[in-house]
Amino acid sequence: MSVIPFYGAEHPELFAIERAAMDRPGLVVDRLNELLPRGIVLDVGAGDGFTAERLTRQDRTVVAVEPASGMIDRARPLTWVQADAEELPFGDGAFQGAYATWAYFFSRGFDPALGIAELHRTVRSGGPLLIAENLGGDEFCALASSDISADATFWARRGFRPEIIETEFAFETTEDALRLLTFYFGDVGPNPPTRLSYRVGLFVGRSRGPN
Question: What is the pTM of this model?
Answer without folding.
Answer: 0.93
